[in-house]
Fold this protein.
Amino acid sequence: MARRAYANEDKEARRRVILAAAADLFEQTRELPSVAEVAAAAGLAKGTVYLYFRTKGAIFADILLEGWGAVVDQLGEAFRPAGQGQADKVATFLDGYVRYLDANPALLRLDAVVQGLLERDLDPDERAAFKEAMHSRINGGGALVDEGLGLLPGRGVQLLVRSHALTRGLWAYFEAPGADAAFGLSDFAKDLAQALTEYWRGALAPSTETPPAELESKR
């Protein structure tokens, strides 16, 4: 039994080495490396890498899942503490989120390119497993937001998905050739923090709009 445990630990350690090598190469070159390049960087034979990952897409799917998984961990830290108000919990999360992305710029770059890779490189079962794992993380994170802020079930998922879309859109603006401060945008982290703060503040503010049904009845 102990021997099997050690074997499992060795496998996980080697898997971590492969993922770290692939992530480092992507961060250095801003391009997805081949399996052969990942193997060389990890100090392994190419065939050994294929024992752990069937395709290049599978490697980077795992890196992407782990990258966004760290954001879900931040959700727990921000929204679970008792004794804090809604605004304080949101501010804690957004501050940690922006700092994390600013410290890990390759995550959004990978997020932008990996979707097409997954469609080409993963077989249907692997693709379904990736999407299920990603949805599980999003749903788990949304549940933490719902519980921490006292929201209706499902509202937290909406906030997170829209925040991700806003993040990707702003990142794409700053990555585009010729992006400058012509429209008052000068720094990705700073502008992302402001945009997300404004979004969450507006999304969580009490609605002052008259429900559609009431509008119809007044006509």
About this structure: The chain has two domains: 1-53, 56-206.
